Amino acid sequence: MAMTWKLLKQLRPPPYTATASTSLHRPRFLNFQNATRLFSDQPPLPPPSGEPPPIPPPQNSHSPSPSSLNQAELAKFAAIAGTWWDSEGPFKPLHAMNPTRLAFIRSTLCRHFRRDPLSARPFEGLKFIDVGCGGGILSEPLARMGASVTGVDAVEKNIKIARLHADLDPVTSSIEYHCTTAEKLVDEQRSFDAVFALEVIEHVANPAEFCKSLSALTVPDGATVISTINRSMRAYATAIIAAEYLLHWLPKGTHQWSSFLTPEELVLILERASISVQEMAGFAYNPLTGRWSISDDVSVNFIAYGTKTETATL
Ligand SMILES: C[S@@+](CC[C@H](N)C(=O)[O-])C[C@H]1O[C@@H](n2cnc3c(N)ncnc32)[C@H](O)[C@@H]1O
């Protein structure tokens, strides 16, 4: 008991210190016209103590986007790159969550692009990009659903693994993989019908700028899908203490609680990047079956789908 308490004390969440990059001050309630699944009815977290973070200086609209790279975070992924396709390894939670996040993507994007959700290849003819694709756990099923997929990741080893794995099947061998970042692709003026960044935003240097890059990569009226972890006490207990320290699903230190965003914060930074969130859902884990399902509870893992509202002024 004493040991457990000592461990919990060591692991207590640090006070939230938003960097200039997040600079969201106090999350505010937002009105989403068309959203069908939104926030949980959990009480909001108390506002962060201390002074609000400084407002970052405005960006010159023609300057290149600042780098999204956080070298310490990238080193963690480089260290375990060889395990991407081991469904019992450190990426076990992503493998387990994949069918559920794909169900959300199929449902929302078939509505968005007016495609038949019962079709085997509903995304035929559409150009998708998977930013922070890792070993390609998401890119491959998107290609199987007919999309022309580009996967990019800042870690070279991840891209090598993704390439090797995709080449095992003629359907996925069409995926274009590159070791690069969203902001570099913006500089190259690339654009896509749908942009995905699943479980990436909590690892980037500057979430607000990262969202602006995702927006710039999305064609007008295109779709953006982002998933991440809520900065809630429940997420601290489950996604960090349980997943990293008790169940050893993930290497210790994989996640920093202070890097998580609340759903309100994510919606706000997406709105500032001209992406209007249309639908949001939580992922609920059933410890008895080991399965994940879509839920209205966004208190831990959640996913948001938004539409590019206008040409963003970046
Ligand atoms: C938790 S993994 C998610 C992988 C994949 N999106 C998925 O959900 O299956 C995060 C990935 O984002 C990549 N990453 C982190 N920061 C990045 C950045 N700024 N630009 C591109 N990739 C990044 C990491 O290398 C890692 O592969």
Walk me through what this model shows.
The protein is built from nine helices and eight strands. With 314 residues, it is an alpha/beta fold. Strands 3-2-1-4-5-8-6-7 form an eight-stranded mixed beta sheet. It is globular and about 45 Å long. It starts with a helix and ends in a 6-residue tail after the last strand. S-adenosylmethionine (SAM) binds at residues 68-69, 73-74, 77, 94, 131-134, 137-138, 153-155, 158, 181, 198-200, 203-204.
Radius of gyration: 19 Å
Sheet-strand content, in percent, reads 15-25%
Strand segment tally: 8
CATH topology: Rossmann fold
* Number of helices, counting only DSSP H or I runs of 4 residues or more: 9
Adjacency order of strands in the biggest sheet: 3-2-1-4-5-8-6-7
Count of folded domains:
1
- Class inferred from helices and paired strands: alpha/beta
**Bound ligand species:** S-adenosylmethionine
Spell out the CATH superfamily. Answer: Vaccinia Virus protein VP39
Helix content: 25-40%
Query: What distance separates the N and C termini?
Result: 52 Å
**CATH classification, class level:** Alpha Beta
Topology pattern, helix = H, strand = E: HHHEHEHEHEHEHHEEE
The biggest sheet amounts to: 8 strands, mixed
Low-confidence stretches: 1-62
The gross shape turns out to be globular
Give the CATH architecture. Answer: 3-Layer(aba) Sandwich
Mean pLDDT comes to 84
List the keywords:
314 residues; alpha/beta; Rossmann fold; eight-stranded mixed beta sheet; 9 helices; 8 strands; globular; disordered N terminus; binds S-adenosylmethionine
